[in-house]
# Entry
Amino acid sequence: MTCFADDIQRNLLDREAFTFRHQLMGHPALSLENLGRAIPALPSSQVFYSSGKLDRGDDFDRAHVDHTNGLSIEETIETIRTSNSYIMVRSPEADGSFQPLFRELVGDVEALIRDRRAGEKAHGAMLYLFIASPDSITPFHIDRYSTILMQFQGSKEVAVFPQWDDRVVPSDVREGFVAHAGVRPVWRPEAEGLGTTFRFAPGDALHIPFVAGHHVRNGPDDVSISMSIIFNTDETQSQTRAMVLNHKLRQGLRLRPHPVGTAPWRDAVKSGVWRTSARVAHALGRHG
# Structure
C-alpha cells in the first residue's frame, strides 16, 4: 500500500473502529503553506468554519450557521491557534495539489474493500480536511458513509459508538437520517459508556465504520490538522437501500420492520426489493 501501513486490520472494515498508521506525514499537499493557499481559493460552498466552542449535543451540520466565529476564512486560518475555531473543507481534491494524494488514497481504500470482500470500488470517494483550534469539539453525529481519518498535526480523542446499537441511535432515527428525511440523530449522554475512545497523534489513522456515531475533542497543546477519506462499498450501499426501505415501511405503512444490521440475509433481501421498486418507479415515470 502507498498511504497505509501494513498494520491495518482489513477484516474489521465497517465492522469495528480501529486504529493503524498512515504513511503521509510530510506530504506537500498538507503543508501549512499549501493549505494557506489552497483553502481560500476553493469555492465558498466547500469551506465551512465556525466557533470551536461547541457541545457534543450541538447540530454539527449547522455549526457554521448557528455558531459563527465572526471572522473571514483568511482571518480564521491566520488566528486558528487562538481563535477557538474549526474549519472543515469538503473535497480539497478540487485543488490540483491534492489530486495525486486523492488517487493514491482511493487505490489503497479499494484494496481494503477487495480484501474484505465488500465489493470492488470506493463509491463516492471524497476527501475532507479539518483544521481546529486546541480543545475544540466536533459534536456527536453519524455519517452516511465509511471514514478513514488521518492525523497530521496536534492530537485528538475520538469516541466511536457501535453502529447498530439502538441505545446510541434508535433504528428509526438512523433510517430516517440515511433516507434524507430531515431526521437528525441527537446525542444521548447516557450512551457515553457504550463508546470506545481512541487517542491518536500525527501519523495515526482511525477507521470509523458506516453510520457509527462519534464525537471528537482536539488536544490542548496544538492546532489539529487531520484529513479523512470517505466512501461507500457495495455492502454499505446495500445497507443504505435496506434502511431506506425500512423508513418507507415505517412512514407509509406504519410497520415495524426488523432493524438493518441484525441479519445480513434479511438486509440483502430488503436491498433487492428497494432497488427493484426504484427501477420500476423510474421506468413508469419515464413512460408515463
